[in-house]
Specification:
Layout: E1 16-19, E2 25-30, H1 36-44, H2 48-55, H3 64-71, E3 78-85, E4 88-98, E5 111-118, H4 127-141, E6 146-151, H5 156-163, E7 169-174, E8 177-183, H6 188-210, E9 214-218, H7 227-237, E10 243-247, E11 257-258, E12 263-266, E13 278-281, H8 288-298, E14 302-305, H9 315-330, E15 334-336, E16 342-345, E17 352-355, E18 363-370, H10 373-384, E19 399-404, H11 413-421, E20 428-433, H12 439-450, E21 455-459, H13 480-489, E22 493-495, H14 498-510, E23 518-523, H15 526-538, E24 542-543, E25 547-548, H16 555-567, E26 573-578, H17 587-599, E27 609-613, H18 617-624, E28 639-640, H19 643-663, H20 677-688, H21 709-715, H22 718-721, E29 732-733, H23 736-745, E30 753-755, H24 759-769, E31 773-776, E32 792-795, H25 798-812, H26 815-818, E33 821-824, E34 830-839, E35 843-850, H27 853-856, E36 861-865, H28 870-879, H29 897-913, E37 917-927, E38 932-934, E39 937-941
Helix pairs in contact: 6-11, 8-9, 11-12, 14-19, 15-19, 16-17, 17-18, 24-25, 28-29
C-alpha cells in the first residue's frame, strides 16, 4: 500500500513500465514514504565511487534525515522517481524547485535542480535516460521549464546522459563542477533521440525472445501429446541450436532425461543449473503465476505463454491477464501471449520453432506477425506446402521470423515493427491484425519501416468496430475507411484477405519494385492475356496490348519475348501468362527460360516479373525453386493460379513504389504570415475558462460541462463519419460568432449569415448583405438537408424573399423551430465538406469529401493525419472517387483546387497548433472557378487528451 507524501495525493498517472536498452523492463514510479527500507537497501548496493559522484564527497550511508528527505515529497516542488525491478530500486532521480539564487522555492519559480543515482550493476542499461524522460515530463506538468544539474567532470556517463538527451542546453564550469542547464520543452532532436532509444530498446527486447540461447518448456507432459510436449518436439525437430530443457513438477524425482527426446528433465526451473533465456509456458492458467515467479527468480528474459483462460474467457480472465503482465514486468520480462501460438526464427544460427507449427518453415525474407493462431497456422501452411494452391510460395519466399501473439497483452505488432525495421534478414513485413492498440504509434512506426521495406497488413474485425475478446485496446470510433486512409498515408499496403497478404508478400520479397504502372503482357493464350489486360485496368494500371505467342510457343519463344519486353522502355513490369500446351516442352524448360530472361542484365533498372498459369503446377514449383536452394544469383519468379491475384499484387507494388518515391522527398507544412496563433490561443483560453472544473494535481482532469478531455475527444468521433455534432456532449460547443472569430485567426473566413426570426428582419438582413441571397434553416434536423426542400437560393428581391419565407414556414414549421438565416449568395461551384476531429487513439484527423450524398451515403471521404503537408492536401482532394467533379468532369469548368488545398492546410494548422479544437466542421464549402466560400462552420473545444507520443516512452499500461 503506497502512502501519500505530505498532503498531496499520490500521482498514479506517473507510474509507467519501460523497456531498457538491453531489452529488459523496469517500472518507474514516484517514491513514497513506504520506500524507506528499499532506499536504504538500494544505497547499500551502490559503489563508493557512484556515491561520491552523487554527493561530491565520501558518503558511505544515508542518515535518518536523508532517508526522510528522499522519501517525503510534495509531488509539486519536490519529486522523486525510482526505477524498480522485482521489488528493488535500481535507480533514483529527484528534482527540487529552486529560485534564481539556487534556493528552495515554490511556483511560479520554473527551474529545478535534478540529480540521479544508478546502481552500478544496472549502469549502461539506459536507466538514467529513461528516468530523465519521465522526470522531465513530470516537471513540465508541474510548471517547471528548465533543469539544472551539477556534475563532477569525471562523471562522464552522467554528463553524456544530459548532453545526449537532445534538449536545448547551456554548459558552464565553476569551482571544479560542470553545471548543465537545459530547457525541458521537447525539441525535434529530443523527440528523435527518444524515439531512436525506444526503437533500439524494443527491438532488443524482441530479439531476446526470438534468439535465445536456451529454452525451457514448462508443462512438458510425461507422455507424448499435449501442448508442452508438442512444442518440445517441434523445437528439437526444427534443429534449435541452443539448449532445451523439459520442466514439469510431476516428473519423478529420479528422472534426469525425458525420453525418447533425450533432453534434460527437471521438476522445477530452480533445478536448472544454467541460465534460461526463454520459457515456453504450457500449464493451466491458475498455475501460471507460480511459474512466472520462478522464471523471474531464475533470471529468465522472456515468456511465451501458450496457456488459455485469460481475457478471452471473461472478466475474471481479464484480471488474470492484467496480473500476468504486471508480474512479468516486475521481473524485467516480456510476454508473448497469453493464448499464443508461438514464435519461430529460421536463421541458421538459431532455428527456433517454439510454436505449435509441426515444422520449421523454409528460411526466407518474410517477417510474419499474427494476432490469431488460426490465421498463423493457415499462413505458415500455405507458405510451406508443396503442391496445389500456394505451393509456388514454398521456397520462393520463406519466413525469417514469425510471432503469433494471441491476446498480445504485452508484445504487440508495434514491437515487431521496431525489430523488423533494421533486421537485415527481413525484407518484407506481413501482419494480420485484429486490433491496433496504439494507432498513433503504429502509423508512426509503420511509416518509418515502410520507408525502407514494405509493410503489408490485413485488418480483421473491420466491420464490427470492436476488438476481439481478450484484446485490451483503447476505444476508438474511427470508421474502417478512415483507418485505411491513415494506413495508406503511412505507406502501409493494406489488403483485404489472407490470400492477398501472401500473394503481395511473395511478389515484394522476390521482385524489384516497378518504376511505374505500365505493364507488358505476353503468353500462349490470347484469352488469358485479355483477362490479365482487364484485371490491369481494374487495378488502375496501364497495360500494353497483350502479345499472343500462340499455343505453339516454345520455351525459347517465351524467353525471347520476355527479354524483349524487359528491354522495352515503354513498360515497367511484365506478366507472363501460360496454359498447358500440346507437343514437346516441359514446365521445367519453360521455367528455366523465364528465369534466364528475367535475370539477364539489361540496359536499365530491373523490372518485376510475375507468371500467371492455369493448371501447370509443375511450372509454379520450378519457378519457385522448391527443389532446393538455387544457385547464387538465381532469380525466383512468383506464379499465381489466377490473373486477378497476380495483377492485384503487382498493383500494390506499383502504389507502394510510388509512395516510397514521394516519401523520399517529404512534403512541407507551409507557413502563412496572416495566421494569429497567439490570438487564437488567447480566445481558446477565454472560451474554455468558464467551463473548466477545479481540476486535480495532474492538471486537466476536469473538463468543460462536467466531461473529461478524453471523453470530449472521444465524443468527436462522429464528426468524421457523420459530419454533424449530435447534441451538446462534453466540451464547449462554440457559437457561430466564436467559431468565425477563431477561424478568422487562421485566415479562414465564413460567409456571414444573419438571423431571420420574421420576414421583416429577413428583408433587412438581405438589404444589409446585398441581393441575391439564400434563405435556409439552421435547426439540427434540417441543417445541410437541401434534399428536404429547406433551402431557397438566388432570391433577388424583397418579394421573392418574402414568398420563400412564407413557403418554408408553411411547409417546415414555425420560424423559431427552423432558426432561419439569410446569407449572401456565393459564386456557383462544387459543394464540399472539410472536417477535423481528434480521436483519443489516433490523434487529430483531417477529412475531406463532397457535401451531401457522396460523403454521407457513399462514404466517399478521404482522411489524413494532422499536420498535413502540401502534398498530403493535394492527395486528399484527388483520392476521393468523385474527385473528377472538381477537375472539369463532362465539360464543366475545373474549380479552384489550389484554394481548396490552402483551406485544408489552414484547418490542419489550426487543430495542430491548438489541440483544444477537438472538432471543426466546415459545411458546405463551395469551391468555384476562382476562390471558395465557407457557408457554414461549427466547432467544439475541450481540454485535449494527453499526447502520449510526445511524452516519455513507456509500455502500454495494465
Amino acid at each position: 500500500m503506497r502512502s501519500p507524501s505530505d498532503h498531496h495525493a499520490y500521482p498514479t498517472h506517473w507510474e509507467a513500465d519501460v523497456v531498457l536498452r538491453d531489452g529488459g523492463t523496469a517500472q518507474i514510479r514516484p517514491i513514497t514514504t513506504d520506500d524507506a527500507q528499499r532506499l536504504v537497501s538500494f544505497y547499500e548496493r551502490v559503489s563508493d565511487e557512484s556515491k561520491y559522484y552523487r554527493f561530491f564527497a565520501p558518503y558511505p550511508r544515508l542518515s535518518d534525515r536523508d532517508v526522510h528527505r528522499f522519501t517525503h515529497h510534495d509531488y509539486v516542488d519536490r519529486v522523486g522517481l525510482a526505477a524498480i525491478v522485482g521489488d528493488e530500486f535500481i535507480a533514483t532521480v529527484r528534482y527540487d524547485r529552486i529560485d534564481s539564487r539556487g534556493m528552495a522555492a515554490t511556483a511560479p519559480a520554473d527551474e529545478a535542480e535534478v540529480a540521479f543515482l544508478v546502481q552500478d550493476a544496472h549502469q549502461g542499461r539506459g536507466v538514467a535516460s529513461a528516468l530523465l524522460e519521465h522526470i522531465a515530463a513530470v516537471a513540465r506538468e508541474r510548471g517547471i521549464r528548465r533543469f539544472a544539474a551539477e556534475v563532477l567532470p569525471a562523471n562522464t556517463k552522467m554528463i553524456k546522459v544530459f548532453t545526449d538527451a537532445g534538449y536545448t542546453q547551456k554548459r558552464s564550469f565553476e569551482d571544479g563542477v560542470v553545471r548543465l542547464e537545459f530547457d525541458l520543452e521537447p525539441t525535434d532532436r529530443s523527440l528523435a533521440v527518444m524515439r531512436a532509444r525506444e526503437q533500439r530498446a524494443e527491438a532488443r527486447s524482441v530479439q531476446r525472445l526470438l534468439a535465445p540461447g536456451s529454452v525451457a518448456v514448462i508443462g512438458t507432459s510425461r507422455t507424448p501429446g499435449g501442448v508442452g510436449r508438442t512444442v518440445l518436439r517441434n523445437l528439437l525437430d526444427g534443429g534449435f541450436t541452443g539448449r532445451v530443457h523439459a520442466v514439469n513438477h510431476a516428473f519423478p524425482d529420479d528422472m534426469a532425461r525425458l525420453e525418447p527426446e533425450g533432453v534434460p528433465a527437471h521438476r522445477s526451473l530452480r533445478a536448472i543449473e544454467e541460465p534460461v533465456d526463454l520459457a515456453v509456458v504450457a500449464v493451466p492458467a491458475e498455475r501460471v503465476p507460480a511459474v512466472v515467479a520462478e522464471c523471474g527468480d531464475h533470471g529468465v528474459q522472456g515468456l511465451v505463454v501458450l496457456s488459455a483462460g485469460y481475457a478471452e474467457s471473461g472478466s475474471e480472465g481479464r484480471d488474470r491477464q492484467r496480473d500476468l503482465v504486471r508480474q512479468a514486468r516486475s521481473y524485467g520480462m516480456r510476454v508473448i501471449g497469453p493464448n499464443a501460438f508461438g514464435v519461430i526464427n529460421t536463421a541458421d544460427g538459431v532455428r527456433l520453432n517454439a510454436s505449435l507449427s509441426p515444422q520449421l518453415p523454409n528460411p526466407g525474407r518474410l517477417g510474419l506477425f499474427t494476432q490469431s493462431g488460426a490465421i498463423g497456422i493457415a499462413l505458415l501452411s500455405g507458405l510451406n506446402r508443396r503442391g496445389g494452391g500456394l505451393a509456388s510460395l514454398a521456397g520462393i519466399a520463406g519466413i525469417s521470423t514469425f510471432v503469433s501473439a494471441g491476446n498480445r497483452a504485452d508484445v504487440s505488432g508495434n514491437d515487431l515493427l521496431q525489430y523488423w525495421y533494421d533486421d537485415p534478414l527481413t525484407d518484407v513485413v506481413l501482419m494480420y491484425l485484429e486490433s491496433i492498440g496504439n494507432p498513433r504509434k503504429f502509423t508512426r512506426l509503420a511509416r518509418r519501416t515502410a520507408a525502407v521495406k514494405p509493410v503489408v497488413v490485413v485488418k480483421g474485425a473491420r466491420h464490427t468496430g470492436s476488438a476481439p475478446t481478450g484484446h485490451a485496446v483503447p476505444t476508438t470510433r474511427i470508421p474502417d475507411a478512415t483507418v485505411s486512409d491513415l494506413l495508406r498515408q503511412a505507406g502501409v499496403i493494406r489488403v483485404d484477405t489472407v490470400t492477398e497478404l501472401a500473394d503481395t508478400g511473395v511478389l515484394l520479397a522476390s521482385q524489384p519494385l516497378p518504376a511505374g504502372p505500365r505493364v507488358a503482357i505476353l503468353g500462349n493464350s490470347e484469352s488469358l492475356g485479355l483477362i490479365t489486360y482487364d484485371a490491369c485496368l481494374t487495378e488502375e494500371l496501364r497495360p500494353l496490348p497483350p502479345r499472343d505467342l500462340t499455343t505453339d510457343a516454345t520455351p525459347d519463344d517465351f524467353r525471347r519475348a520476355l527479354t524483349g519486353a524487359l528491354a522495352d522502355d515503354a513498360c515497367d513490369a511484365v506478366v507472363v501468362t501460360a496454359i498447358p500446351w500440346v507437343g514437346d516442352g516441359s514446365a521445367q524448360a519453360l521455367a528455366a527460360a523465364v528465369r534466364e530472361a528475367a535475370q539477364a542484365p539489361g540496359p536499365g533498372p530491373a523490372k518485376p516479373v510475375a507468371v500467371v498459369h492455369l493448371e501447370i503446377q509443375e511450372l509454379a514449383e520450378a519457378l519457385a525453386g522448391t527443389g532446393g536452394e538455387p544457385a547464387p544469383g538465381t532469380r525466383r519468379i512468383p506464379a499465381y493460379p489466377a490473373a486477378e491475384r497476380a495483377v492485384r499484387a503487382l498493383a500494390e507494388a506499383v502504389r507502394y513504389a510510388r509512395w516510397r518515391e514521394e516519401a523520399a522527398e517529404p512534403g512541407r507544412v507551409p507557413e502563412y504570415d496572416d495566421i494569429d496563433e497567439a490570438g487564437a490561443a488567447a480566445d481558446i483560453q477565454v472560451l474554455l475558462a468558464p467551463a473548466d472544473g477545479p481540476g486535480g494535481e495532474g492538471g486537466g482532469n476536469g473538463g468543460p460541462r462536467g466531461g473529461t478531455g478524453r471523453d470530449a475527444a472521444a465524443a468527436t468521433g462522429e464528426a468524421m463519419s457523420g459530419g454533424v455534432f449530435d447534441g451538446p456532449g462534453p466540451g464547449v460547443e462554440l457559437s457561430a460568432a466564436d467559431t468565425q472569430r477563431l477561424l478568422a485567426r487562421y485566415g479562414v473566413s465564413v460567409l456571414p449569415a444573419l438571423p431571420a426570426p420574421d420576414p421583416d428582419t429577413a428583408v433587412r438582413a438581405a438589404q444589409r448583405l446585398g441581393f441575391p441571397v439564400a434563405l435556409k434553416p439552421t435547426a439540427a434536423q434540417l441543417r445541410h438537408r437541401a434534399d428536404l426542400g429547406g433551402v431557397r437560393l438566388e432570391l433577388g428581391s424583397e418579394t421573392e424573399l418574402r414568398r420563400a419565407y412564407a413557403e418554408l414556414t408553411d411547409y417546415l414549421g414555425r420560424p423559431e423551430e427552423l432558426g432561419l438565416v439569410v446569407q449572401r449568395m456565393a459564386p456557383r461551384g462544387v459543394d464540399t465538406v472539410v472536417r477535423a476531429a481528434i480521436d483519443p487513439a489516433a490523434g487529430a484527423v483531417l477529412s475531406f469529401g463532397l457535401a451531401g450524398a457522396p460523403s454521407e451515403l457513399l462514404g466517399d471521404t478521404a482522411h489524413g493525419l494532422v499536420p498535413v503537408t502540401g502534398r498530403d492536401a493535394a492527395e486528399l482532394i484527388r483520392s476521393i472517387r468523385t474527385a473528377p467533379l472538381l477537375f472539369g468532369w463532362r465539360g464543366s469548368k475545373p474549380v479552384d483546387t489550389a484554394a481548396l488545398e490552402e483551406l485544408l492546410l489552414r484547418v490542419s494548422r489550426l487543430v495542430d497548433d491548438h489541440p483544444e479544437m477537438v472538432a471543426v466542421d466546415l459545411e458546405p464549402v463551395v469551391v468555384a472557378q476562382h476562390g471558395l466560400s465557407v457557408l457554414g462552420a461549427s466547432a467544439r473545444l475541450a481540454p485535449p487528451p494527453p499526447r502520449t507520443d510526445l511524452g516519455p516512452r513507456h509500455m502500454p499500461a495494465y
